[in-house]
Amino acid sequence: MNDLYQKDFLLTSEKSDKALKTILELALLLKSLRDQNISPRVFDTGLAMSVFRDKSTRTRYSFASAANMLGLTVQDLDEQKSQIAHGETVRETANMISFLTDIIGIRDDMFLGEGNKYMREVGEALDEGYQQGVLPSRPGIINLQCDRDHPTQSLADLLHLEQYFGSLEALKGKKIVMSWAYSPSYGKPLSVPQGIIALMSRFGMNIELAYPDGYELIPEIVEIAKANSENNGGTFSISHSMSDAVKEADIVYPKSWAPLQVMKQRTELLKAGDTKGLDDLEKTCLAQNAKHKNWEYDARKMSLTKNGDALYMHCLPADISGVSCEAGEVSAEVFEKYRIQTYKQAGYKPYIIAAMMLANKFRDSVSVLSKIVDRNLPRL
Amino acid sequence: MNDLYQKDFLLTSEKSDKALKTILELALLLKSLRDQNISPRVFDTGLAMSVFRDKSTRTRYSFASAANMLGLTVQDLDEQKSQIAHGETVRETANMISFLTDIIGIRDDMFLGEGNKYMREVGEALDEGYQQGVLPSRPGIINLQCDRDHPTQSLADLLHLEQYFGSLEALKGKKIVMSWAYSPSYGKPLSVPQGIIALMSRFGMNIELAYPDGYELIPEIVEIAKANSENNGGTFSISHSMSDAVKEADIVYPKSWAPLQVMKQRTELLKAGDTKGLDDLEKTCLAQNAKHKNWEYDARKMSLTKNGDALYMHCLPADISGVSCEAGEVSAEVFEKYRIQTYKQAGYKPYIIAAMMLANKFRDSVSVLSKIVDRNLPRL
Amino acid sequence: MNDLYQKDFLLTSEKSDKALKTILELALLLKSLRDQNISPRVFDTGLAMSVFRDKSTRTRYSFASAANMLGLTVQDLDEQKSQIAHGETVRETANMISFLTDIIGIRDDMFLGEGNKYMREVGEALDEGYQQGVLPSRPGIINLQCDRDHPTQSLADLLHLEQYFGSLEALKGKKIVMSWAYSPSYGKPLSVPQGIIALMSRFGMNIELAYPDGYELIPEIVEIAKANSENNGGTFSISHSMSDAVKEADIVYPKSWAPLQVMKQRTELLKAGDTKGLDDLEKTCLAQNAKHKNWEYDARKMSLTKNGDALYMHCLPADISGVSCEAGEVSAEVFEKYRIQTYKQAGYKPYIIAAMMLANKFRDSVSVLSKIVDRNLPRL
Question: What value does the mean pLDDT take over residues C122-129?
């Protein structure tokens, strides 16, 4: 079964292993076409809508460059960021921005319990619109980060790991530490760590999730990761010390996120329009964070990893101590050592998104790319 | 005479019946090309400037998708919204954004007596720029809503009616009610009702314009509609009760707009920079609106229409009672019944705009589209 | 040596005469292709990033239309305007917006000592990214105005002069007056006058730089202009009276700029985050400007020029007395006489930028354009 063609890409956990491997394969192919100056354009006109309900430079660029690669033009929808829309507003807007749209990319990561739900509501509206003859085709939705998952990030991360260690097979038995880290900023989404544990657990890796008390992830997603590990020959454990967690790690991903309870309260306060409550919550949360400044990934902790040089990962921008902030997620020394690697990690994202677009629109996307290689149209 | 080729599209009342029918025909053809996955791209590079002096999601999308369909790239001009520009500022800006521009779409609907005037001023500046050798070609202007008319909306509405009732011929003798409706929001332009009465009166329809005392439209446009009705075998009447107006109607278009006097005062206050006066005017206007909450189109009123199921129309977004506001233009029940129809109505707009672009740029636009059918270039 | 191919275009003073002439030649060729309805598209997909750290309508349009002409899509980077970024932030962002980027256009003209430096920092980050395999190719940077130079403006101005007087050769011995002029607005960059004196002095023109005491330009750039004049058979002088300066001038370029000391202080205050200090400085600066209201270019001053009709130039928008402000850089009468000429002057900019893009990406850009003439692909 092809679970990519004409299917939204909302959660990696909904996709088969075959589907995920297809995305990785397509992304690599697209990257090699770029290196050979071959244009992979498959659209002669067409629109990719971007709906960002949170600020973004990197993902915005990745989405725009993926669209451009395939011949689509990006059109941005200006959405009010602090408003949770439902019902007729969503149904109507979804149709109004889809009359000639091929792909819709949505980032909605600020409010727990809302982002992924919103994407599904948009999807249902599009289904109806297409069935009722409002839309000439059903635009595909790509999750550009929600409250539950960040699939374009986690798949770019997986592709980076595949390239770094040589193959997906080589990832089996590797220890990856997904660790909370201190940050002076507030309200970072849980989607990156959740995306990492849910995805990497499917490739036989040994997952260690580390965070201070109170910073747990959505329990249901942790259960998915545990089950994946069992089914794929890996292990899954949780610890509450970064130093303990990183021992003998092959990969360390230190990244801040907000406490689950704070994220829940925030959604409630927002729904109630309680501005004062939101301000107070921010102060409480920052004070809570500040108790865990020792959750910085530094040279000492790195020395505890396998051969002292576990691959450091980050989705960027990182809070680098003494560089982008006084005290942060990672020491300047450690970051600098892996800086270029983090850039490479980020560089896979445009291709991952383009692969998702391609797989959504073509039943046999791999053979479409073969034809593109044969066509051999120079991009420049 | 071809009054589309190299002519701005500013008011439907300036265009011949033949011109309007050409736009409808081209729009339908473009829509059918989309359904057949044929690319109608006629530009290899080119720019469509959009100048929005008022917020817009739907028209912005329609303009962007029309441009994309034909191979043009949209470039937005950031204009200060609260400023009425004249003279050298307009002349200069018009030229500065036109060196490589094919089409300029302008929305300027906020200030009575200003929007259409502004478009003509831009047009004159472009004429001069082209004659003086500043511009290699004369960009065509498309009115995306002004203080007098909203031609891309009214023509999309007409195309919807043609498709719904089977032909333009079938519209003869149909009763259409353009009715004011209550809205809790302030300062909605008069251009939609004005556009509807000025256009539909040309196709032999029986127009009933309904509004509470004080909500009349620009008298000159009402005169145009009356004359059209006389010349085309229809009738035109005005009433001051929604319930009376909708009796035996084939089509009901309930839509809020601001009182004419308020719109006039607003323009004056704005020119004088009287912020306090503008705030006071808003309060007065909302209070005035609130006296007419019974101007809601509901199931009871619908039951009075022909067979109790007149086609409900709206340019969207509608103020739906209990859905998007407490009390509004239409009851949830009635809106839901015709919801998909309103989406279809909106769906014609991108094709209407693309048809206007095409007809502005090609002397024989219909034969250009025939060649495109023959070319048979797959879009995807 | 080809100092355009794969080289950033940051300052005209870094480029050879041959390079500058190539840009002018390419720009003219591109303009004539447009007039013949031939598409010069050389990219099949590709991105041009625009980074505007200051507001812009004209240059933004010019960059967008240049990109479109060649087949590139513009993607804007939203940058915080009031922040001077350095180090890792710049390195990272430069790479994140470059994975699939061909050209980066940057405007950063607000802070003395910062704009050009920032562009070079971006360039170094791109060099590293390309060398380290992060980027598949090295995007070229085009300076869209910095604290030192405004090369797309000065080269468009030069092309205008070449066309107006018939040839570059004809410019030899012509007297051009680059004069400060009064403006009621604050903090205009020094890059236009600096760009003009540094460039025009290379073509044997007699440069007269005029400004009231305190409005000198960056000394180092004045030295460059002086040396150019000596090496190219022209003269260079400075005066402190507009009336004296314009005598027997062939060309007069009256344009306001901020005092050098104010621009220096402003950068320091900004670095210190001293908002109060910045406000005070603005007041001081406006008061200082107001002492020189007689620095308006009017009919009387124009009568002193060669035959009383020296070519008036301006980069637009000009502060026109009685039109765009009470008292400004130029009288309405003089401006009106040369208004169309200023529009033509501005009209070269899109082609200059496109020429820079082309020359950056193709080793033999002139022969690429010849092939395009042979290809003869209609744009419309």
Answer: 98
Parallel/antiparallel/unpaired status of strands B236-239 and B175-179: unpaired
Asked if residue A368 and residue A327 are part of one domain, the reply reads no
Give the relative orientation of helices B349-361 and B151-165 as an angle to the nearest 10 degrees.
Answer: 110
- For chain C, list the contacting chains (3+ Cβ pairs, <8 Å): A, B
> What is the complex's ipTM, to 2 decimals?
0.95
pLDDT at site B270: 85
Judge if A208 and A341 occupy the same domain.
Answer: yes
All residues of chain B having their beta carbon less than 8 Å from the beta carbon of residue C377 are 44
| Separation of first and last alpha carbons in chain B | 37
In angstroms, the separation between the Cα of residue C69 and the nearest Cα of chain B is 6
Same domain membership, residue A258 and residue A167? yes
Asked whether residue C361 falls in the same domain as residue C327, the answer is no
Touching subunits of B (3+ CB pairs, under 8 Å) are A, C
Interface probe with C: pick from A36, A58, A65, most Cβ of C within 10 Å: A65
When divided into structural domains, chain A yields a total of: 2
> What is the full DSSP assignment across C317-367?
---BBTTTBSS-SB-HHHHHHHHHHHHHHHHTHHHHHHHHHHHHH-TTHHH
pLDDT tens readout for residues A147-185: 999 999 999 999 999 999 999 999 999 999 999 999 998
Rg, Å, chain B Cα set: 21
Q: What percentage of chain A reaches a pLDDT higher than 90?
A: 89
| Strand bridging mode B236-239 / B206-210 | parallel
Q: Up-side HSE of residue C43: CA atoms within 13 Å toward CB? A: 27
Q: Is A100 close to B69, i.e. CB distance below 8 A?
A: yes
CATH number where C27 lies = 3.40.50.1370
Provide the token pair at B318: 């509608």
List pLDDT tens digits, range C230-272: 999 999 999 999 999 999 999 999 999 999 999 999 999 988 8
Q: What is the mean pLDDT of residues C149-175?
A: 98
Containing structural domain, residue B28:
12-149+349-375
Whether C143 is in a domain gets the answer yes
Q: Which of B43, B88, B99 sits opposite C347 (nearest CB)?
A: B99
Closest alpha carbon within chain C to B368:
C380
A301 with A313, same domain: the answer is: yes
Quick: pLDDT tens for C363-379: 999 899 999 999 999 99
C279 and C145 within one domain:
no
Residue A64, domain member (yes or no)? yes
Residue in the structure block whose two tokens are 């000596």:
C230
Domain membership of residue A6 (yes or no) is: no
Q: Helices (DSSP H) in A132-241: which residue ranges?
A: 151-165, 191-200, 219-231
Q: Is C297 helix (H, G, I), strand (E, B) or coil?
A: strand
User: What is the mean pLDDT of the segment spanning C6-10?
Assistant: 98
Q: Is the pLDDT of residue B81 over 60?
A: no
**Probe site for chain A from C41, C42, C45 (most A CB atoms < 10 A):** C45
- Measured between its terminal Cα atoms, the distance across chain C in Å is 37
Please give, one letter per residue, the 3-state secondary structure of A73-90. Answer: EEEEECCCCCCCCCHHHH
- Asked if the Cβ–Cβ distance from B347 to A101 is below 8 Å, we say no
pLDDT at A89 over 70: yes
Angle, helix A332-347 to helix A151-165, in steps of 10 degrees: 100
The predicted pLDDT at position A55 comes to 77
Taking CB atoms and an 8 Å limit, are B96 and C316 in contact across chains?
A: yes
CA distance B275 to B279: 6
For chain B, give the mean pLDDT.
Answer: 95
Three-state SS for B251-293 is EEEECCCCCHHHHHHHHHHHHCCCHHHHHHHHHHHHHHHHCCC
Nearest to C44 among A35, A39, A61 (CB): A39
Contacts of B50 in chain C (CB under 8 A): none
What amino acid occupies position C103?
I
Query: Rounded to a whole number, what is the distance in Å from the CA of C87 to chain A's nearest CA?
Result: 8
